Amino acid sequence: MSGAPREAGEAPGVERVQADRDAVQAGRLQGGRVLGQQIMFSRLSYPGRPVPMPDMWDGYQASRERVLDMIVSDRITNLAILAGDIHSSWACDVPRTWDGYKGATGEGSVAVELVAPAISSPPLFANPEIRERAPALRAFLQHVKYLEGESRGYVLLDITEKQLRADWFHVPGVLERSAVEHRATSFVCERGAARLTQA
Q1: How far apart are the first and last CA of the chain?
Q2: pTM for this entry
Q3: Closest alpha carbon to 161 in 184, 192, 182
């Protein structure tokens, strides 16, 4: 479902942005800061283009700009944003602007985002229309380092003083009880960096 960005006082809104500031400042761990929230933060639509998923932060672009401004003005570093709700696995750099980001080096990124897949709900690509868009998303969104929408599973984080490591584990199904799982991919963000590299 596409649409235009929605602001008009709806959440996240100014109150949410202030809450995020407080959460980021309080969420410092030994290797950095972690901001856990429900919906995907990263950009999925270009400025002026229809918003494919307006219930994500793409639908609240002015609010997201205020959060990005906060990250830059408060000089917040080593920030990992955690999200879910989109029933798929994503690993993203979080650029401050479209134009200032270089996908090959991560230059222009101010944070990273790690999105966990669904545990029991249908995966994102159960919708054929969305599955058909996936190659275009991978091709045109340089900040998206990983996208998998076929599987359920979870993300395991390991945060040390030197790096953050994220391992995505997927399971074959949920209709039968099973201990079978496999590691789908792994990414790391080194301390002092704001970019993901595949492990």
Answers
A1: 34
A2: 0.87
A3: 192
